[in-house]
Specification:
Elements (H helix, E strand, L loop, with lengths): L5 H13 L8 H19 L6 H34 L10 H25 L7 H11 L3 E6 L7 E2 L5 E2 L7 E5 H10 L2 E3 L3 H4 L2
Antiparallel strand pairs: 1-4, 1-5, 2-3
Helix pairs in contact: 1-3, 2-3, 2-6, 3-4
């Protein structure tokens, strides 16, 4: 993926504002957007004190970028919440954090529906938080990734298994928390599984 600039962030934000459905946004692309904002902030620190015009332009750009990125993520969150309430998975690609949000909302809504069903059938329902508490600590989510750069050192996953080393183009299923940084920096990309695309 090429470098991200102001116009790319503006276009992504405008598309999210305009379209009712969630637009695709991968972790790597979001990371590059945030990286661009950091780059502009750094440029501001390097502007000589006497160059007020350049400083004012950069401050304005930073404010606009900050607003667009915040609003982009709020809009996406609202669309994900609406999709979970409607019990339908959003069509656009979500970041790992957004997938986690959607999955937690869906599980919570399903548990609440079961709670209501039991209640209306006259059963004393178990508190949903008690039922879910033990599952959350033991469940590790896995993500299938393809490596764009080699990982030469084996590492211990959150599931206490040893993974690696990996060559460029290797595909692996790894604990979600172990791959988040690699997805952001472009070391790996998620692989869409066929069964997921049929949903």
């Amino acid at each position: 993926m090429s470098e991200i600039g102001y116009d790319d962030i503006l276009r992504a934000w405008e598309n999210e504002v305009r379209e009712p459905d969630l637009q695709s946004l991968e972790d790597l692309r979001l990371g590059k957007m945030v990286q661009y904002l950091s780059k502009v902030r750094l440029m501001l620190t390097e502007v000589p004190a006497e160059d007020r015009l350049q400083a004012d332009l950069l401050v304005s750009e930073i404010r606009n970028l900050d607003y667009m990125l915040r609003d982009l993520m709020v809009l996406r969150r609202e669309k994900i919440v609406r999709a979970a309430l409607a019990q339908r998975r959003p069509l656009g690609t979500m970041t790992l954090a957004e997938e986690d949000l959607y999955n937690r909302l869906s599980r919570g809504l399903a548990e609440h529906a079961e709670f209501l069903k039991d209640l209306l059938e006259g059963h004393m329902p178990q508190r949903p938080s008690d039922a879910a508490g033990s599952d959350d600590t033991e469940k590790i989510e896995y993500v299938v990734v393809r490596f764009l750069r080699p990982i030469s050192t084996p590492f211990m996953g959150l599931d206490e298994r040893t993974y690696g080393p990996f060559k460029k183009e290797d595909i692996a299923s790894l604990p979600r928390e172990n791959v988040q940084a690699w997805l952001r920096d472009g070391t790996a990309v998620r692989v869409a599984m066929e069964e997921r695309s049929n949903r």
